Amino acid sequence: MASGKIIALSGGVGGAKLCLGLHQICEPEELYFITNTGDDFLYLGFYISPDVDTLVYTLAGINSTETGWGRADETWKTHNVLGELGADNWFKLGDKDLALHLHRSKALRNGETLTSITQDIANRFHLKANVLPMSDQMIQTIIDTNKGLLSFQEYFVKQASAPKIESISFKSKNPEPSAEVTEILTDPDLKGIVICPSNPYLSIDPILSIKKIRQSITESKRPRIAVSPIIDGQSVKGPTKKIMEELGLKVNVLTIAEHYKNCIDGIVIDHLDQGYAGEIESMGIHVKLSEIMMNNDDDKKRVAEDVINFIDQIS
Amino acid sequence: MASGKIIALSGGVGGAKLCLGLHQICEPEELYFITNTGDDFLYLGFYISPDVDTLVYTLAGINSTETGWGRADETWKTHNVLGELGADNWFKLGDKDLALHLHRSKALRNGETLTSITQDIANRFHLKANVLPMSDQMIQTIIDTNKGLLSFQEYFVKQASAPKIESISFKSKNPEPSAEVTEILTDPDLKGIVICPSNPYLSIDPILSIKKIRQSITESKRPRIAVSPIIDGQSVKGPTKKIMEELGLKVNVLTIAEHYKNCIDGIVIDHLDQGYAGEIESMGIHVKLSEIMMNNDDDKKRVAEDVINFIDQIS
After folding, report:
1. Does residue A239 surpass a pLDDT of 90?
2. Chain A contact for B110 (CB, 8 A cutoff)
3. Dihedral of CA B157/B158/B164/B166: which sign?
4. A192, A311 in Cβ contact below 8 A?
5. How close, in Å, is residue B211 to chain A by CA atoms?
6. Strands B266-270 and B130-133
7. CA-based Rg of chain A, rounded to a whole angstrom?
8. pLDDT single digits (tens) B114-136
9. Between helices B95-109 and B114-124, what is the axis angle to 10°?
């Protein structure tokens, strides 16, 4: 595989699958995963960063494929005793997973940046790829629903994505990307930018809500490729379809292409959606047809190869 | 067993054994365990209160008799991963135990008192006895050693009690007992006060360092009984003997009686130490000879019965 630095914008599970595929076929040192931190929250005194952790665990091969979050071979002793004590335990933290939260929270209290402690943790798990939280500031995804304003975890975990979404916003004071994110976005050796098939509204938009990131991507001369999170009118995973409907959007790949319009040069869609290819191309966006459902490691590798080939093709 | 409220001053393991004995023979609601918190410390962002926890776990019957601290049937997943992450894990926290620290720390951050959250935890473990931290303020035992000033946990756990002690002090700003401790010390239904066979210098002195507690005990008209932590020149458990030697004290029950002189009316010593009985009695302190080594539950019950009988006898 040709060398060159690749940026991938990712949320949790769905995005992490493509990241793992890229990790299998590229030089890990040349991969820069800019990860959503809009879901981050404070819980029992810990700083929890769900998408960053899902990505780290997935790349390290220790993620739970059963639950889609947390670690494999996990135990729940602390969680269960919290329940016995009548304490908060609506957000399930496994015993192994907990150590990461303790370690990171202590580092943050000691003045380390989220980026620095994330990289330290990634190194401990023997990862050479660059896992970059989108910002070292707290930027909180706020969901306005028929049940009131909810943070991401209140919406997604506590209320199981049931409330009807009216709008989504990102709460922060002058959000800035981390120094590391800023640097890679303008790196002369950058080969291309990938938008992973994460939820565009809840996982990718928080990243693009940071003006400097959006501007760098909009102005980038490198090929910028999205992989659709929608196949044949269905979301590959999670509540993407439900949210699109609630926001009054048509659930198809055209809506996705329109959503990313100024940020992408090409989009990878499934063969099942080839009927939309012409209309997307007429927007000036290249289309690559592929099989984009990622059920196993071979699928992930194949989609990653399609993405890298597409970048080479557009360059 | 005759009714009436009993106060017992206790540290960790050794004291908790007598507390458990009292718990077996008295009405739990009438027991008030004033517990050392000089060992309390902040660790990984948690407030840890080792003696309070040892007492709660012991009374609840879920303590580890193997280690002498923590819970039985414990696992160490979080602890082990902390090690893998290169994080602090010199203080071993079990997975079940951790839940208590999370729960208590959150309550303290929310403005609850240590006394209130301790009682809440005790209730969750179905205890009816009153476990009272000596104070709701942080009062830190500071040990001046040949290795410098150490906190209790640095001395006891991190350095395994190896440094030579030069002096012991208790760091706090105008330490006050909790409201609950103040109340029970002057309760008209108080039947007697027990000083458990904990380390006098590291576990009981922190409690007596609070002027109002010492004064209440000194002035109390109720029988005040100590149980010796020394048998035949040896400490029953832990570094009591070593510390006495380092402080230039003779390791015998006479030294213990002298140490508690103004705070006790009687002392329970082992048959092996009957040679000291005359000299202790000449100080105006009653002596009860007994078998005070507590290896099993029957021992604990028997020593507790001796203590209660001694209180009745002196009354």
Report:
1. no
2. no
3. negative
4. yes
5. 34
6. unpaired
7. 19
8. 999 999 999 999 999 999 999 99
9. 140
- Rounded percentage of chain A residues whose pLDDT exceeds 70: 99
Q: First-to-last CA distance in chain A?
A: 15
Residues 6+ apart with CB under 8 A from A122: A56, A59, A60, A129, A130, A131
Contact list in A for residue B79 (CB cut-off 8 A) is 99
Compute the residue count for chain A: 315
**What is the residue extent of each domain of chain B?**
5-144+169-314
What was the pLDDT predicted at A1? Answer: 52
A97, two tokens: 């997973």
Is pLDDT above 80 for B165?
Answer: yes
Alpha helices, DSSP H, located in A7-76: 13-25, 50-59
State the nearest Cα–Cα gap between A197 and chain B, in angstroms.
Answer: 30
Q: Which residues on chain A are in Cβ contact (under 8 Å) with B84?
A: 99, 124
Given pLDDT bands bounded at 50, 70 and 90, which one contains residue B88? confident
Residues of A in contact with B96 (CB under 8 A): 77-78, 81
Query: In the predicted model, is pLDDT for residue B66 greater than 80?
Result: yes
- Nearest-CA distance A191 → chain B (Å): 32
How far is it, in rounded angstroms, from Cα B31 to Cα B10? 12
What does the block give as tokens for B276?
């000291």
Determine what percent of chain A falls in helix, strand and coil, rounding each to the nearest 5.
Answer: 45, 20, 35
Say which residue the tokens 């959606």 belong to.
Answer: A273
Asked if B95 contacts B78 with a C-beta cutoff of 8 angstroms, the reply is yes
On average, the pLDDT of chain A sits at 95
Q: What is residue A272's three-state secondary structure?
A: helix
- Give the closest residue to A176 by CA, choosing from A203, A130, A207, A141: A207
Q: Which residues contact B232 (CB under 8 A, 6 or more apart)?
A: B270, B272, B273
Under the banding of pLDDT at 50, 70 and 90, the label for residue B239 is: confident
pLDDT of B12 reads 86
CATH of domain B5-144+169-314: 3.40.50.10680
Give the span between the Cα atoms of A55 and A15, in whole angstroms: 8
Report the amino acid identity of residue A191.
K
Q: What's chain B's length in residues?
A: 315
Instruction: Give dist(CA B169, CA A135) in Å, integer.
Output: 46
Residue B198 pLDDT grade (very low, low, confident, very high; cuts 50, 70, 90) = very high
Q: What is the pLDDT of residue A315?
A: 87
Sheet strands (E) in chain B = 5-10, 31-35, 41-43, 46-48, 130-133, 140-145, 148-151, 165-171, 190-195, 224-227, 230-231, 234-235, 266-270, 286-290
Record: fold of A5-145+169-314 = Rossmann fold (3.40.50)
Token code pair at residue B194: 């027990």
What's the predicted TM-score (pTM) here? 0.90
Q: How many other CB atoms are found less than 10 A from the CB of residue A61?
A: 13
Task: Indicate the helix (H) or strand (E) that contains A210.
Answer: none
ipTM computed for the complex: 0.88
CA A222 to each of CA A234, A315, B229: distance values in angstroms, whole numbers, following the listed order: 30, 7, 76
In the chain, the amino acid numbered B170 is F
